[in-house]
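Practice problem 4.
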């Protein structure tokens, strides 16, 4: 590639400027990656805590469901489950972390009062209320976890993309420009040396001719 480089002082100045911009871009990308990794680590800790909490809620809810099904019968549990169906309002908002949109999920309260679940309180037992509360807690935790997981995926993708760009600048672009800069500088130095030698020879030849001619 250096064979095709025009070895002029203007090109040397251009390469120096390009190197400065490439290094500045690399440093900015490193700062961006640091900010992304900081947010990724923070959300990862939240995700681990949320996952552990969700597993505990799910285990308790499954236990309550098994006990209630055994004692009250699957028909009573199934009937209550059908009657208690409903909708939950969900909305998304986002914030920017180093240019990456981080999702935050907002939703209506999942937990409901006993009288708002749709099934007859007279025809059900408190155990069914316990099952409903348990799975409402599971759904509440699941909705919170989904937003964190989505944000983690976006951060991981952007961290990977940014790392590739940093590596390209650090190991390909900057070294290539530095190689061209050094090549141009070397050629210019050689030319300057050749010109200096040529001038010295011309001066020596002129002095010799003057000496041979003698005084006018």
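Answer key:
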């Amino acid at each position: 590639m250096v064979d095709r480089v025009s070895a002029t002082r203007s090109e040397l100045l251009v390469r120096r400027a390009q190197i400065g911009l490439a290094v500045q871009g690399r440093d900015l990308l490193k700062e961006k990656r640091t900010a992304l990794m900081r947010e990724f680590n923070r959300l990862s800790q939240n995700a681990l805590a949320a996952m552990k909490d969700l597993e505990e809620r799910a285990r308790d809810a499954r236990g309550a469901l098994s006990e209630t099904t055994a004692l009250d019968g699957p028909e009573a549990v199934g009937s209550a489950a059908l009657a208690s169906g409903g909708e939950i309002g969900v909305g998304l908002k986002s914030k920017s972390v180093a240019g990456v949109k981080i999702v935050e999920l907002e939703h209506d309260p999942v937990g409901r009062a006993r009288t708002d679940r749709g099934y007859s309180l007279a025809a059900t037992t408190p155990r069914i209320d316990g099952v409903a509360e348990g799975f409402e807690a599971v759904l509440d935790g699941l909705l919170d976890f989904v937003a964190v997981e989505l944000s983690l995926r976006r951060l991981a993708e952007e961290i990977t993309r940014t790392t590739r760009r940093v590596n390209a600048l650090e190991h390909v672009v900057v070294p290539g420009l530095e190689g061209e800069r050094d090549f141009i500088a070397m050629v210019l130095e050689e030319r300057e040396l050749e010109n200096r030698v040529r001038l010295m020879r011309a001066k020596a030849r002129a002095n010799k001719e003057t000496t041979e001619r003698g005084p006018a």
